[in-house]
Amino acid sequence: MTGRPGTTDPLARLLGWMFQAHPWHGIASGPASPEVVTVYVEIVPTDTVKYELDKATGVLKVDRVQRSSSLCPTLYGFVPQTYCGAEVGARCAERPPRRAGIAGDGDPLDICVLTEKAIPKGGFLLRARPIGGLRLIDGEEADDKIVAVLEDDVAFGDLRELAECPRGLVTRLEHYFLTYKQLPGAPPRAMEIAEVYDRAEAHEMIRRSERDYRATFGAPEARLDELRRLLAGG
């Protein structure tokens, strides 16, 4: 909806000049998705506070202070204009261990991005190539974590499949996501990683989450016409 460079729509161009796009709704997943996707980064590996996008305002907020020494081992955020809804939940339910009643977690699709670069803080966009993912189940909700590499990264940029990634790094990701919501003194959360999957499955989950987004929030390309109708009093 926002006016990117080269847009010919005067309303889109004006909106792009005047307003910052909402990181979830106002930015596309990218023309090459699912091969290459836009990522909004919320957390970097040095963060001792878990940041999360405030869905209503589009502002990055403090979600909680990390109470353990476990830090996210990669850049972590989400793919814009995705949503974990019915299709994402159905895919989780039909894959091993095949469990009925799984729903999407109602958030954008999470993504971890591998890079050799030390980036000091989140709240920015990048382009990444998905290479696989972790099928995390939180209680009865699908909470997939796509794993990707920063485009043109010197150390990780040549990886094409998650199986090519150092096993120790994948193990660290698994451990982080199995424990990052566990609070000291609280009962254990029902978290499990049902599957570690490849690039083809990561692409499938991105496509499903994009369709879930459209089913829930409508077609992004129709929003300018909707805005024109509202401005005209329609």
Note down, in words, how this protein is organized:
By secondary structure, this protein is an alpha+beta fold. The chain has a single domain (29-220), classed as Inorganic pyrophosphatase (Inorganic Pyrophosphatase, Alpha-Beta Complex), CATH 3.90.80.10. Helix content is 25%, strand content 26%. It is built from 5 helices and 10 strands, in the order αββββαβββββαβαα. The chain has helices at 10-18, 86-94, 167-179, 199-217, 223-231, and strands spanning 37-43, 49-53, 60-65, 75-79, 103-104, 109-114, 124-138, 141-142, 145-150, 191-197. It has a 5-stranded mixed barrel. β2 (49-53) and β3 form a beta hairpin. It starts with 9 loop residues before the first helix and ends with a helix. The mean pLDDT is 93.
Q: What's the number of extended β-strand segments?
A: 10
Provide a count of the helices: 5
* CATH top level class name: Alpha Beta
The description of the largest β-sheet is:
5 strands, mixed, barrel
* Category from helices, strands and their pairing: alpha+beta
Distance between the termini: 19 Å
Helix fraction by DSSP (H/I, runs of at least 4): 25-40%
The CATH superfamily is identified as Inorganic pyrophosphatase
Beta-strand content bin = 25-35%
Globally, the shape reads globular
CATH third-tier fold name: Inorganic Pyrophosphatase
The ordered string of helix (H) and strand (E) elements is HEEEEHEEEEEHEHH
Mean pLDDT figure: 93
The main sheet orders its strands as: 1-4-6-9-7
Just name the CATH architecture.
Answer: Alpha-Beta Complex
